[in-house]
Amino acid sequence: MDATPSPSSSSPFDMVSSALGQYIPRGAAAEAAGSAVSQGDRAARQHVPANPAPGRQEQILGAVNLDRDLRITRCNLDAPVFAGLDAATGCSFVDLLPPGDVPTVTRRLRQVLETGEPHVARVQRLRRGDGSELVVSMSILAAAAPQEGLTVTLIAMARRLHLYAAETAIGTSLDIGETAQSLAESLLAWGDVAAIDLDFAVWTGEGVAGQRHGRVRLRRAALVPDRVWPDGYVTPGDDLPGDASRLLSLAIRRDDAAQAIVIPDREAIERVLGSPRLVRALVPGDGAAAVACIPLVLDGTPPVVLGVAEVWRRADRPFGDSELLDLQELVARTSHHVDLARQHQREHTQVLALQRRLLPRTGGDTIETASVYQPATPDSAGVGGDWVNSFPLPDGRTALVVGDVVGHGLGAAATMGQLSMEARALLSAGLAPDEVLEHLDETVTLLDDADSGLAAGYSALGSTCCIAVYDPVSHRVALSSAGHLPPVLVPPGGPAGPLAVRPHPGLGTEFALREPFDVQAFAAPPGSLLALYTDGLVEDPSVSIDEGIGRLADAVSAVHPWDALPQAARGLVSALAPVRRRDDVTLLLARMIGYRKGDTATWRLPARDDAAARARTVVSALLGRWHTRADTRDKVVLVVDELVANAVRFAGGPLTVRLIRTGHGLLCEVGDTGNGRPRLGRSELLDDSGRGLQVVHRLTTRWGVRWTETGKVVWAAFGT
């Protein structure tokens, strides 16, 4: 066919063909065109010509058009470098491939046909008629309308061009598995099978010492081509047998310098490996007769060996000296990419471990929770500062916390962990949600000072947080927010919608006039569903934020009361999260259960001298109706007597006594209007002050204080 179509053509095929003509001088163009006419002369095309004469510009570009059945409809492979490729019209394109590459390349061709997304610049081998192979850089494009099918462009890979293209492709990912896979695919240009085996410490992201003694554990990180391997053969993700790891590590580490080795024939390979089991595990097939092992070395003093690359060949293709130099050069150029991926893997593992540690474990008896966290991207650069937590408070309530720390990576993860743990500690100590946010606001301001030490060069100003505390007795939620999007509440049988939370700037925003945080209370009857989330779930460039929150409210309303929350949470994220996420997605669902009415009792008593006696009477009668054990009943009555007596003595005002029967014991609370904190101290033998708290401390499993708008509540827990 004619290699120089008319300039009016606009298809990718014609554009490439037009460009090809610019690479051939006028005389050569006619010669190439004439050779293309005689496509039936296959013998002439089997011979691979010598290098072009000096001064002549060598054509290295070619193009092939395919129909939807992957058969060739047009081609421009008439340059001398492509001689020997049997690319006749009507033939299947995969016939040009080595048999082991057919499944992988076919899958890529079909993928471009289905999605239209190009597959660009991957190193590929093509078979010539004489059995030799040509290494090309292959790109797969969807054919331009009105044509159908594919356009495959081929660039013949000269040595320097191949090294450059391979290094560029290997450095495009920070995932250690993808990096190893790219390196293996590039090495395939020199052999039939390529494998990358990494030190296990490199694979997991740990540090690797320069001088390592003893056994080295190797794990297979990549293997090409992609095909079904026999049983017993080591494939990606598998550890190499201990004997194989020892042999490979000894082979590449001679004295103080790592060296490449070549085992030239099958007999030598079997002699070195020493057992049929190792041969089955390491040798890819009966045709493999030679292997080159090239260490992945990180320059330093001493040098650090990260692993070993292995390239296998057939018996009729021995390794030449120049090829070994090329292999060593490529591996040396790309070893630092493997180390960068190792460092990234370590950071990724650390951040994800912290992120998952903060995820809720269980909701308790009075509330059911489920959470979903999805990073924006699978690498650690996409693991950001979103965090969510739910935990029971010592006084029987449950805290629900969600936050979004500015930024990504370890700086954001460290700040996220500190804020989360601080919030948990303060809530467990009895502080109200607004007081907790005030402390977090101060913490973020301190962390923004680079001299304070945690995150020099990183600013967390503007981070957001929302804290909700659920009281299972009153069935109410106390909520406070710092710049966070409003939670969505779905009451049983009622309309769903975002809670009317007063907006407040984010944490550490000094430009705000230091406005106090508000606490707002909402009714949450049993069966209510509360959704806390981060902006990544509802932010979509195609819709407004209010519309995104409305979509979330509609989706949460559709959750059936009998639906399992974990599956419901995953379904909500799958349905609502933007396809192209720019931020992490976090969702916490909480279904309110609360205590049954018969498991709680509340009494209001005046602060008089007879208050303790009245409290003993009503509490003892209730415990009798609950059939509480006698020893437990005596402890509870005595503790209630001491707490009420202390409240009358030191606080005054009306008192509230509340008794709760939990799934694990009993909980009693005494509320008053005082703001002093009861403290447990050492009392002398004749000192009457403080003896009441000593009794409470000895008879309960746990006790504490929380503050309310009108005073405080002292609570005490008992086991059964």
TrEMBL record:
<keyword id="KW-0904">Protein phosphatase</keyword>
<dbReference type="InterPro" id="IPR013656">
    <property type="entry name" value="PAS_4"/>
</dbReference>
<feature type="region of interest" description="Disordered">
    <location>
        <begin position="35"/>
        <end position="55"/>
    </location>
</feature>
<keyword id="KW-0067">ATP-binding</keyword>
<keyword id="KW-0418">Kinase</keyword>
<dbReference type="InterPro" id="IPR001932">
    <property type="entry name" value="PPM-type_phosphatase-like_dom"/>
</dbReference>
<dbReference type="GO" id="GO:0016301">
    <property type="term" value="F:kinase activity"/>
</dbReference>
<dbReference type="InterPro" id="IPR003594">
    <property type="entry name" value="HATPase_dom"/>
</dbReference>
<keyword id="KW-0460">Magnesium</keyword>
<dbReference type="Pfam" id="PF13581">
    <property type="entry name" value="HATPase_c_2"/>
</dbReference>
<comment type="function">
    <text>Primarily acts as an independent SigF regulator that is sensitive to the osmosensory signal, mediating the cross talk of PknD with the SigF regulon. Possesses both phosphatase and kinase activities. The kinase domain functions as a classic anti-sigma factor-like kinase to phosphorylate the anti-anti-sigma factor domain at the canonical regulatory site, and the phosphatase domain antagonizes this activity.</text>
</comment>
<dbReference type="InterPro" id="IPR036890">
    <property type="entry name" value="HATPase_C_sf"/>
</dbReference>
<protein>
    <recommendedName>
        <fullName>protein-serine/threonine phosphatase</fullName>
        <ecNumber>3.1.3.16</ecNumber>
    </recommendedName>
</protein>
<dbReference type="GO" id="GO:0005524">
    <property type="term" value="F:ATP binding"/>
</dbReference>
<dbReference type="InterPro" id="IPR029016">
    <property type="entry name" value="GAF-like_dom_sf"/>
</dbReference>
<dbReference type="InterPro" id="IPR035965">
    <property type="entry name" value="PAS-like_dom_sf"/>
</dbReference>
<dbReference type="Pfam" id="PF07228">
    <property type="entry name" value="SpoIIE"/>
</dbReference>
<dbReference type="GO" id="GO:0046872">
    <property type="term" value="F:metal ion binding"/>
</dbReference>
<keyword id="KW-0479">Metal-binding</keyword>
<dbReference type="Pfam" id="PF08448">
    <property type="entry name" value="PAS_4"/>
</dbReference>
<dbReference type="GO" id="GO:0004722">
    <property type="term" value="F:protein serine/threonine phosphatase activity"/>
</dbReference>
<keyword id="KW-0464">Manganese</keyword>
<dbReference type="InterPro" id="IPR052016">
    <property type="entry name" value="Bact_Sigma-Reg"/>
</dbReference>
<keyword id="KW-0808">Transferase</keyword>
<keyword id="KW-0547">Nucleotide-binding</keyword>
<keyword id="KW-0597">Phosphoprotein</keyword>
<dbReference type="InterPro" id="IPR036457">
    <property type="entry name" value="PPM-type-like_dom_sf"/>
</dbReference>
<keyword id="KW-0378">Hydrolase</keyword>
<dbReference type="InterPro" id="IPR000014">
    <property type="entry name" value="PAS"/>
</dbReference>
<feature type="domain" description="PPM-type phosphatase">
    <location>
        <begin position="367"/>
        <end position="592"/>
    </location>
</feature>
